[in-house]
Amino acid sequence: MTETARILLVEDEEIIAIVIRDLLVAEGFEVTICENGVDAWQSLQAAADGFELVLLDLELPLMNGMQLLGRIKSNAAFARIPVIMQTAHSDKQSIQEGLSQGAYYYLTKPVQPEILLAVINAALEQSRELAAMLETVSRAEQPLSLMKSGSFCFRNLEEGRLLANYLAKACPDPERVIQGLQELLINAVEHGNLDISYAEKSALLLAGSWQEEIQKRLQLPELANRFVEVHFQRQPEKLVFTIQDQGDGFDWRDFLEFSPERVFDLHGRGIAMARMMSFDHLEYQGCGNRVMVCVNTSQH
To answer: Model's pTM, two decimal places?
Structure first.
């Protein structure tokens, strides 16, 4: 990371806490350590300039990690802080529970330094991008309120993020929708048009070369002219977004829920998070290169 980030490390094992703190400090992060969930919650509330990320042990005294996660995600002041859980056990049920409550990622102990840093950097980058988009949304007018329907085309990730920002303004709750739209538009580029497989993205993220590979493939003659098409339609009680890429599709059924087989991967939760958090309905169609999502307006 090029910017300093404040990290709250909640870990009751002193040796592990010191090792992780020293690793993160060497990378330029500011680290505050709490030994239990109660102290961590008080630190969150007391921090004047806030924490950008929480690294949270599952098993803690006084208040366990799952209880603290619930408090963080149910409080509007802290809900957008990415929380990375650490556990010595691979209990799939509790892991799925944590992911469904909003945990960004799970790490198993002993933590591998390169995995920890990759996950932290990915979480901070995504969190900062989302914060920038939400700030733009909160300041912007909503010209889409007058639009009945429209079509948009884009090629790269930057254009996809800008379009997600713009389309979110049409929704009653832009902050709820914007991250889900971004996930789907980015998927349409990287996994759809650019043919980056799940395994390839895992390796690229770990190597820190994902962005470079995206730019490389955007220049390939066989991929350079591909685009993603987005249709917007305002219906009496809902907004409908249809996203179509020009790839060969994929087996989307494995990605609609949080999969126990992928809980420790560096990615793969975007579609499930979008379905759960951002939209009232999500449906993949055909071979998987077309997805339709709905946002209800009648209840607002």
So the answer is: 0.65
